[in-house]
Amino acid sequence: xxxxxxxxxxxxxxxxxxxxxxxxxxxxxxxxxxxxxxxxxxxxxxxxxxxxxxxxxxxxxxxxxxxxxxxxxxxxxxxxxxxxxxxxxxxxxxxxxxxxxxxxxxxxxxxxxxxxxxxxxxxxxxxxxxxxxxxxxxxxxxxxxxxxxxxxxxxxxxxxxxxxxxxxxxxxxxxxxxxxxxxxxxxxxxxxxxxxxxxxxxxxxxxxxxxxxxxxxxxxxxxxxxxxxxxxxxxxxxxxxxxxxxxxxxxxxxxxxxxxxxxxxxxxxxxxxxxxxxxxxxxxxxxxxxxxxxxxxxxxxxxxxxxxxxxxxxxxxxxxxxxxxxxxxxxxxxxxxxxxxxx
Length: 343
Hints:
three-stranded antiparallel β-sheet; 7 helices; 18% strand; disordered N terminus; Phage/GTA_portal; Phage_portal_PBSX; Phage portal protein
């Protein structure tokens, strides 16, 4: 998501009649993030010739940031991870922290990877999760793990167990299943930021400072403009002193640009976007901590939990187990299993 920037102050003067207009406070602009930039003829991936790896179809840092700014999106990813991992009986080969990291990466970024740890005889004795945020693939199918400084670490394809969500456009990286809800996630965040800025601005959306008094000369206009600019910040415009000797009673007027209280869609936006995120994740509202409005209810949460476990958690857990156990280098004594209650 692009960072916002403020426009510079604009000032216009009509020399014929002395009319002066200036703006202050700036306007925030942001370039929208195209959630579907992975849908094109090339599948959204490009090959970085300089670094020698394929660039993922979706900006992974953006996906991570979005999970931390939306009150539904991020927590649902954690819940899906917890519910799936709870169905897996571990072996000495894989620690729970690495299993949870694998599933989290898979759900958030669309793919996850485990690095094989070998003994002196080249036998696999452990599996360690690698963050999908920094994992890349080259043309030979090998993996590069980016470092904050220095050259990336390179791992052979045989040293990595790679799990990805299927994407019809390309099979190099996975694409998360919730991308249809990204715009709603950003709208939810934008609505919250707008409301915060509204209150920080003094609980108003701006106004027109209209002056018609002929006694307001150029020097006083400049002083008034500077005073307004300096008043930016929390609780600004709470008071403003203007002294015009021999001025007219109606020489200065403040005209509000808009009043958020007259038509506030904040609650509607938050409600609709929250529902969109539940739909995108196929997650029951009764398990997401959402309070039903009015006389509505979400039914029995235990039944919702049982249904979700059957349709989502167990299939995901089974996919993880089959992937790891299906690797020819994983010994049978290290195979994972579904917990007894999940069978």
